[in-house]
Design goal:
This protein has about 110 residues and is mostly helical. The chain has helices spanning about 1-25, 40, 65-70, 80-90, and strands at about 55-60, 105. The protein folds into two domains: about 1-30; about 30-114, Membrane-bound Lytic Murein Transglycosylase D, Chain A, CATH 3.10.350.10.
């Protein structure tokens, strides 16, 4: 009876591993051929005008919402403001879980003239 139990358990473990690898549930399997290349992502693009100024940037490994925002801006707004503006610009995106290779609109803050 033990032998049958461990055989079924082994088959179940193999099947779940196979289905995870073939369905693309791992981050490496989610890359798309239509995504822009990594070289394109760092190129300077003009700041687009909207209710909130923003710049479209493709996320690379190691990037976070705050690291990209700090790299783009001299003036550092509050984290709450960055999260709010990012959510307005990208309503379907979770700011805490950016996907590598996806392009998002990041808020651009500039100094106001005195």
């Amino acid at each position: 009876m033990k032998k049958r139990f461990f055989t079924i358990l082994f088959i179940l473990a193999c099947w779940t591993s196979y289905s995870d690898l073939t369905s693309g549930s791992l981050p490496a399997g989610q890359a798309s051929a239509t995504q822009p290349s990594i070289k394109e992502s760092r190129q300077s693009r003009p700041v687009e005008k909207a209710a909130i100024n923003f710049q479209r940037i493709t996320v690379e490994p190691g990037d976070t919402l705050l690291s990209i925002t700090e790299r783009m801006n001299e003036q550092q707004p509050s984290i709450e403001q960055v999260l709010k503006d990012f959510s307005i610009l990208n309503p379907s995106a979770d700011p805490n879980h950016l996907q590598i290779g996806n392009t998002y609109a990041f808020p651009y803050y500039h100094k106001k003239a005195n």
